[in-house]
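Usage example:
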Amino acid sequence: MTDLESRLLAEIQAIRAVDCHSHVPAESPHARGLADLLGYHYYTELAHSAGMPAEAVAPSLPEAERVAAMVERLPTIDNTVQYGWLMEALRDLFGFEADRLTAENWPEADRAIADAGARPGRYREVLEASNLEKVFLTNAFDEDLSGVDRDVFVPCLRTDDLVFQLAEAPVRERLAAKTGVEVGSAAAVREAVGALMTTFVEQGAGSAAISLPPDFAPTGPDAGEADPLVARAARGEDLSSDEARRLAAFVFEALAEACRDAGKPFQLMIGVLRSVYPAGVAGGRDLFAKTGSLHQYAGLFNRYPEVDFTVSVLARTWAHELATYAWIFPNVKPSGHWWYANVPVHIEYELRSRLEAVPKGKLIGYYSDMYKVEFGLPKFGMYRRMLARVLAREFVEAGRMDEAQAVATARLLLRENPKAIFGV
Amino acid sequence: MTDLESRLLAEIQAIRAVDCHSHVPAESPHARGLADLLGYHYYTELAHSAGMPAEAVAPSLPEAERVAAMVERLPTIDNTVQYGWLMEALRDLFGFEADRLTAENWPEADRAIADAGARPGRYREVLEASNLEKVFLTNAFDEDLSGVDRDVFVPCLRTDDLVFQLAEAPVRERLAAKTGVEVGSAAAVREAVGALMTTFVEQGAGSAAISLPPDFAPTGPDAGEADPLVARAARGEDLSSDEARRLAAFVFEALAEACRDAGKPFQLMIGVLRSVYPAGVAGGRDLFAKTGSLHQYAGLFNRYPEVDFTVSVLARTWAHELATYAWIFPNVKPSGHWWYANVPVHIEYELRSRLEAVPKGKLIGYYSDMYKVEFGLPKFGMYRRMLARVLAREFVEAGRMDEAQAVATARLLLRENPKAIFGV
Amino acid sequence: MTDLESRLLAEIQAIRAVDCHSHVPAESPHARGLADLLGYHYYTELAHSAGMPAEAVAPSLPEAERVAAMVERLPTIDNTVQYGWLMEALRDLFGFEADRLTAENWPEADRAIADAGARPGRYREVLEASNLEKVFLTNAFDEDLSGVDRDVFVPCLRTDDLVFQLAEAPVRERLAAKTGVEVGSAAAVREAVGALMTTFVEQGAGSAAISLPPDFAPTGPDAGEADPLVARAARGEDLSSDEARRLAAFVFEALAEACRDAGKPFQLMIGVLRSVYPAGVAGGRDLFAKTGSLHQYAGLFNRYPEVDFTVSVLARTWAHELATYAWIFPNVKPSGHWWYANVPVHIEYELRSRLEAVPKGKLIGYYSDMYKVEFGLPKFGMYRRMLARVLAREFVEAGRMDEAQAVATARLLLRENPKAIFGV
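Running the assembly step on the lines above writes:
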């Protein structure tokens, strides 16, 4: 690392970031033991990929057995960036200084985590150490948000089941229970979805969010077209796959309208295919296909100029489209580096490509996607280092920014843009 | 920048380049005021993307108002490479030394541009300062070329409307007026297109050129198949979208034949979708989709071994195909870095990939695509720096070329290849 | 190159590698003259792409004439990495120290190659100098393997013609002659294919291998569905393209079963289109299309958890899917950098992406794909340098590995993983 890069990194580490997408559970945000870290799907799926039977970490097993199995397998994945996150979290958050986790030393790490985890408000300590001001949650539409610590957590309405499972009776029942609306018509769908959004925003929500398969097309069917589909779904009738697609597109559209009416962004996470590898470990079964195009969303972006669509794409092949659509559409904002794209080599390329051709005020640099707050430090740490590298090499050394401008740009990406875009 | 890179850059800056694709208007090639620079679609579209209403730069507004609106918004896009082009042009061509354009200083810049622009032959000064020997124009098929300064400008027959709008009466009328041929049959299309090409070449044209959507397939329908389509189009009858596609493919084929007969290259610019964002600023409404494949063109490349197809692709996902088809097909020549791919991060990768596996004599390094000659300097400047970087890091330092070979290679890309390929 | 990179490279060059894919002919593995090197399709196709008529290297011409034609054209391709392979092989294997091959000096190089080639066991000298322990061959299913020098060569069952040409009578006849099975039914196909695999494994084969077009989908038709197709093909009846596709999918499935039963990997080389440029030189007519998705193979990977699929992809657009499917599926192992992806710029990116997110024990670093053993040295040399660069810059300098770990990782990629995966 050059001196310049080190200076920039020091400044970037001092930026109090906002994390606009995570799966942290409000009621149990921090780790209580090593199992909470090693149970993160990245570790179990990589260890399984490297040869560990999925059964070795079956939820039915005692925690210590699962941890021991994982510790035994860690050497098989110690080249990965995800392994690096683990060791960085252990060292920087728990003072665990050993080079490796071993059969001998893991109980010590486990105890350190348990001791820290028992302290009241431990998650606030962790966020403080991670220099994260706020972390978005991912909340089911009927989740009780009353216990959320709104000083540091921001609710976010997750909408996958509404869009893709409205034909399932339990989803409609949960929706009716939450909103008082039985969704038997297109109008009722709009009413229910609007009510959810209003409730969520009243409780401090920053946005709605959804993950989408690569072939999803928000075709924006109108209420007249959707009405019979909603009615039939509500009666428990089967829909053809094409009808199911149109129903999903209608619910999606109702959500976009609700975002518009509530003045909140819609987080689109595009590209995932669920359960491609059903025999995998929990959380390690989904993949993606590189097919499709952001052009499928052009109509949506045109229909809702008032809505900020913060967009993440899973396949690298979509990345150029994302940066370019954000260059042209005022309401398209590239957001972070999602899941299978959350790897330094891809981050470095895409970060540079966004910084070189998208207005800086539109870029949401990073989010953690984490399940426990402990991963915010190493994940944002990785991103902060990439940011320092790209700003140093391609902007400051190239004479396109001075150091102060580079740091100000980093501050936009890490903090000011998410705060402004999500209103938090 | 290392000493090696600096030495190479100095040599590369001394190469008198040929710019084989621009939109410079022959009758008004250089800027007359700041509005001519800030009106470039890159600035208006990026400022709009960053929040400026499109109406702030409506053509109906007084020029000074538009300029003031743009100057106010420049800080929102000052991270972009396009912003860098602007400031480099102002400094190096107009001696404007301030760090930024401001509400206070922009009239000064405006005056400097107006003063320079009033000097006779100003565009020649600019090209001289940019070390550009010749710049290709993009000419409508019925444009009067008599006033073109052929010492520095090279006409180029733009053919988009012929291929995609022959069913429109005004296009056929313009064609008849220009060539004397009423295109009521396939044979007449060939005759008219051949006549255009002949006329253009007589007036110094370097090539024909066309931009194409990602799903275009040059299927090469024969005259027998095309005849009824041409006839119906000529009678004003509606064509189905499939018929329109076949008509377009036929006109395209006639152009390929005309290029063959005239011994001139056909510039293919593949991938654009028009008016994806209709509410955008002028010039800032088009985008692309990453779908499709250069394999769609394999038949064409096989049918016309005598024609040089100089190919640009808009989507990065097509770049590997382009470099590889150029590696195999003698008549496929990768050309520059077009529009949304004209960003350092993509240029660096693609330039390296072409230099590592495509014969050097086939590479057209760069073209400006500019609308005013003032952008030749910073755009080619950006490319010259990328060229110095890639040659230094991947060729000279890696022991694969010595410095003289690296400079000779750069000379091919910037000058000798376009001169040889286009015969200028 | 930094000191660190040099140190790593020295260690990496000392690793005795295993080359799991080549086209070296067992009966004539090393070069007997310059024509054997310059006749490699990379040189003839690149020279042809740069303007040399294909006829200049027609097989009917005297060897010296072909060599002279190629030597004359080498300056047109001296920027390419493939040219670098040639000169490195000449220098390091034949002591040819001139900077260039010329009309004057090529006979000298030719004699040096002929002299060396006449020495008994010359190919072993070459492999020794290249630090290659073993090299896989590519064998036709009815090839006589008795003469293979099994100390250094490993047979591999090439299966393209079985899968894609079973409807051709000569293929079925060769199969019957080899296995004694007339393939008139689905069961007979399975029997014949199983017998082939058994025979090959008895003779030391490391795997089966196949190259596939980008739209191939291993849909796994069952025997009942395939039976009438096999029967009709056996009677010489024409199959529709859809039927041919299903027949191919069935034979492919039988091969996957045979790999499972034999406990051997299946090398999948995905993406090639044959004879896209029929007028090209021999070996220089195939290309690819970037379309399709590794998702087409998800069912296969699920059906055969016991089979290691070592996967290469030809189009860069598939690379992210490959690294990611290997991250999730235990039985998907990324293998090398194939053909049009075998270029430093792509290797550097993909190598980094695999090392950052795929368990290290699953990565097959490289294979040569060579036709004469002389190319193992420069091709592996190129890869060794990329490996040193990526490990130095992204792992050791970044603090994610120490030097010993980096070297150990390189040893996995070059040697230990292929040995373990293929059991050689």
